[in-house]
Amino acid sequence: xxxxxxxxxxxxxxxxxxxxxxxxxxxxxxxxxxxxxxxxxxxxxxxxxxxxxxxxxxxxxxxxxxxxxxxxxxxxxxxxxxxxxxxxxxxxxxxxxxxxxxxxxxxxxxxxxxxxxxxxxxxxxxxxxxxxxxxxxxxxxxxxxxxxxxxxxxxxxxxxxxxxxxxxxxxxxxxxxxxxxxxxxxxxxxxxxxxxxxxxxxxxxxxxxxxxxxxxxxxxxxxxxxxxxxxxxxxxxxxxxxxxxxxxxxxxxxxxxxxxxxxxxxxxxxxxxxxxxxxxxxxxxxxxxxxxxxxxxxxxxxxxxxxxxxxxxxxxxxxxxxxxxxxxxxxxxxxxxxxxxxxxxxxxxxxxxxxxxxxxxxxxxxxxxxxxxxxxxxxxxxxxxxxxxxxxxxxxxxxxxxxxxxxxxxxxxxxxxxxxxxxxxxxxxxxxxxxxxxxxxxxxxxxxxxxxxxxxxxxxxxxxxxxxxxxxxxxxxxxxxxxxxxxxxxxxxxxxxxxxxxxxxxxxxxxxxxxxxxxxxxxxxxxxxxxxxxxxxxxxxxxxxxxxxxxxxxxxxxxxxxxxxxxxxxxxxxxxxxxxxxxxxxxxxxxxxxxxxxxxxxxxxxxxxxxxxxxxxxxxxxxxxxxxxxxxxxxxxxxxxxxxxxxxxxxxxxxxxxxxxxxxxxxxxxxxxxxxxxxxxxxxxxxxxxxxxxxxxxxxxxxxxxxxxxxxxxxxxxxxx
Length: 721
Known about the structure:
Blueprint: E1 11-19, E2 22-29, H1 36-54, H2 68-78, H3 81-95, E3 118-124, H4 127-139, H5 144-160, E4 164-171, E5 188-195, H6 202-217, H7 224-231, E6 245-250, E7 279-286, E8 289-297, H8 303-322, H9 336-343, H10 359-369, E9 374-378, E10 381-384, H11 385-401, E11 409-413, H12 418-429, E12 433-436, H13 443-453, E13 457-460, E14 480-482, H14 486-493, H15 502-505, E15 512-517, E16 527-531, H16 532-545, E17 553-555, H17 564-573, E18 578-581, H18 591-599, E19 604-607, H19 609-613, E20 625-628, H20 635-642, E21 646-651, E22 661-665, E23 681-682, E24 686-691, E25 705-710, E26 716-717
Parallel strand pairs: 6-7, 9-18, 11-12, 11-13, 13-14, 17-18, 19-20, 20-21
Antiparallel strand pairs: 1-2, 3-8, 4-5, 7-8, 9-10, 15-16, 16-26, 21-22, 22-23, 24-25
Helix pairs in contact: 4-5, 4-8, 5-6, 5-8, 10-11, 11-12, 16-17
């Protein structure tokens, strides 16, 4: 039942009879007439009155010298003019530039309007930790509250990634003895700001928090509502102004348990179902140990998340108490079991793969086993595994004759064609690392890539040479082979068709397979050096994961200058499948691409989600395995495509050999209202770590940067330390 603030009353009591000797007393009051301190006074006065009346004695309570109205009138008279201005000026300075919102990681998006629905989990600190925190406070001249505020702010900063934290706290605001025994709403709220940008030590942070808190205490008279009105922060129905997280250390005078003569009394536990703020940590010291609750907005958080958060706080506080010289970034948050799960359990990806084999040896095994099987289809041309292997071998022997050695770079600039695949395999078999040059790139970019990669040879096609910068412009004097040229073709035809022997070339799986340049969107393009062993791991993993076999038909969609192209090529040619090439026009997003997929009965395709978004998912098509890669996949695209096809969302930078994680999107598991499509777990022999700015592992659900380890990690950037 709502209170009528105009008519009152603002306090109600009911005595409920449950049995002959059992009753429940319910007292409900509006916060406008009472606060936490007042509750203790109310218990004292009820005890005194009941005890006296049960013994036939008169009211024992002395008359109050002052009423709450007297205090309110005095405050209005005193808190004005220069006094008010000085206090407001302090809060202006204290909160200037503070963030409007503490963006903690949540289980659900913040609703447009707060519902104030909430829950609470219990927080209990051991007597030993409580003693240690008191000792830490004493050593650094701070109070227990200040130490808890420092620890709470560190945790919030680590979880949010923000270094400027504002936390609300209630203060009794009963500095005068005349009002200590008065029931009423005296409590005020202070917005305490803690700045952690310079990664201070625990000791330095305690000193900062002490100064900041004492300054706030000295200016606590102005009501919080007036501070908000004066500062005019951005207002939103979705969160409270100035701060969204509170800390309360209950240090009101102890009143003891309610004890009435002739009665046996016990409190009735109340379930917390409301929350005025995102988080409120409330603690009291009882019998030498801190305990209380962590109240949370259930619109945002699950109870399990808050349980973990409470655990992280205890670990952090214990570390603070153990060594105040530590930088706050180095304070642990994770329990041993959490750390084990994040660093080891989630990365248990060890699997056998041919780590000592070269990527082209996997292709050679397919060519030997099924030489008549179709390896490549381009337009109306098809090439068998045996023929493709022989042509690649002749090119390889030609390159070896030109002096190509392991780790030498060989540039290749060709259009989509069978010659493109012959060129790649020939370079690999010769021991070189191919450097793809997209003929559509600007001349300046091609010139830079040629100069930076310093290739020992260049493979291209008739008609491509005029698109390439002159070798002289790039400062190079290298042989140029035309893969479709009559003269070069005749010379290559005279070469041996057997597989070059890697051992004779000094070639191992730790040598480079290719160097692909990044887009340069954040600066100068960098050449990423990827090795054979990482590529072999990728090929074997994707063949198994995507169920590729000799009956599969894989589209080579990506440009040769993008690393997805080597994934498509290796997945096909290392499994005995058929690789389908097509002219650029047929790969245009929309009907052109869909017609080609249907005509060639493609079973496996890797597409950027933006391309997939413009294509239909016609059920007449062969059920495909579609890998979304190269950019973020929207829930709408994932939901639509997963209805009729097997869909994977793949993630991986060029520096991790194309793909580091995959997530299979089951039909119906994603809807358009889903926030994001997961990138999944690491592929075989790959480790994934989510770290903060100080390279510390973050708890589950907390934002951080992805760090990748394992077989696929590139050797480095060409010509860069």
